[in-house]
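pls read this protein.

:::
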Amino acid sequence: MHKLLVLYPEPTDPDHFRDYYVSKHLPLVTRMPGLLAYRYSFEVAATQGQTPYFAVFEADFADAAAMTAARSSPQGRQVTADVANYATGGVVVMHFPVLNGTC
């Protein structure tokens, strides 16, 4: 599995961010080809001190090629272009292969 992780610093208008993100941005995300699952939260907390992030999003893809194809697709380009409509505090985008551990 390959994960896309998006971290959002505090926006200038948190209420607009939440409303726009849920009602307009996430419906665009669900149209990305190859998307297996996604999760998000506005309840981001640091274990110590103040968190540098307002929201977090993660998406699962079968592998890096599937994620790259999704992000390069017309739907993926639309998702990327839409970020400027709500993420006034900026955005940090990362991706990585998921490795399983044992207990």
Notes: The helical segments are 14-29, 64-72, 74-82. Residues 14-29 form the longest helix (16 residues). Strands lie at 2-8, 37-41, 55-61, 92-97. The longest strand covers residues 2-8.
